[in-house]
Amino acid sequence: MKKKLQTKNSKKGGGKNKFFSKENRVKVIILILAMLCFLLIITFSLKYLNNNKTEKTQESMPELGINEQTDNPNLETTPVIISGEITESSKLEDFYATGKPSFIVFAGTYCGHCQRLIPELEKEIWKNYSNKANIWIEVIGNGDFPTSMPQGANENIIYEDIMGECSYVPAYVVLDKEGNQILRSCGSEKTIAEIKSALDSQLN
């Protein structure tokens, strides 16, 4: 009886030694390393996707640092405006017609707030002032806005020249008949009522 028990114990001991053999230890180490690599790949993939999503949803323009927040810069003088038609290739000097105030909007097609603002401007400003003032949307980004308002990406209309230190969109100015800024909104701080009031002050 004792002999049989010793035989069983010796078999168990042999199995244990076999499990922890050099070959099995190598396999376990390889398995652990493979799992760690897999976890690292998953971690970096999630981080990349999160960063990519943030970049796409952030309504900003890197070179200008434009986003939706607002600022309150002092009004600046825009270069004197001479008569001309509003087109995508016009220079700033002949961008507006003589004798009319002007309303220029900088809006990013990537900007959700801009996308919501344009239909309001079309309804409240374009429909009421299209024959009384020169209105233009300077498009920042790819594509355009679904609106009948004149728009385009004009390389002669430089954001910094008109908006100064402002770095936000939407941004807009109302200019008098000589091209001087009488209202400026860096971001959406100025309301549509204030835009109307500024335009009306030049039409009376």
Summarize the structure.
This protein has 204 residues and is of the alpha/beta class. The protein is 44% helix and 13% strand.
How do the strands and helices of this protein lay out in sequence?
Blueprint: H1 2-19, H2 22-57, E1 102-108, H3 112-129, E2 134-140, E3 151-152, H4 159-163, E4 171-175, E5 181-186, H5 192-203
Parallel strand pairs: 1-2, 2-3
Antiparallel strand pairs: 1-4, 4-5
Structure characteristics:
Glutaredoxin, alpha/beta, 204 residues, 5-stranded mixed beta sheet, 13% strand, 2 domains
Could you characterize the architecture of this molecule?
This protein is α/β, with parallel strands linked by helices and 204 residues long. The chain has 2 domains: 2-57; 92-203, 3-Layer(aba) Sandwich (Glutaredoxin). Helix content is 44%, strand content 13%. A 5-stranded mixed β-sheet has the order 3-2-1-4-5. A hairpin with a 5-residue loop joins strand 4 and strand 5 (181-186). Helix 3 packs parallel to helix 5 (192-203). Mean pLDDT is 76; it is low at 1-14, 53-73 and 80-84.
Please identify the structural class as seen in this structure. alpha/beta
Specify the biggest β-sheet.
5 strands, mixed
- Shape, principal axes of CA atoms: rod-shaped
Total helical segments: 5
Share of residues in helices: 40-55%
Overall strand count: 5
CATH topology of the largest domain: Glutaredoxin
* Chain-averaged pLDDT: 76
What's the assembly state of these chains?
Answer: single chain
Strand content: 5-15%
The top-level CATH class of the largest domain is: Alpha Beta
What is the name of the CATH superfamily of the largest domain?
A: Glutaredoxin
Order of helices and strands: HHEHEEHEEH
* CATH-derived architecture of the largest domain: 3-Layer(aba) Sandwich
Radius of gyration: 33 Å
Can you tell me the residue ranges where pLDDT is under 50 for at least 5 consecutive residues? 1-14, 53-73, 80-84
Strand order of the largest sheet: 3-2-1-4-5
> What count of structural domains?
2
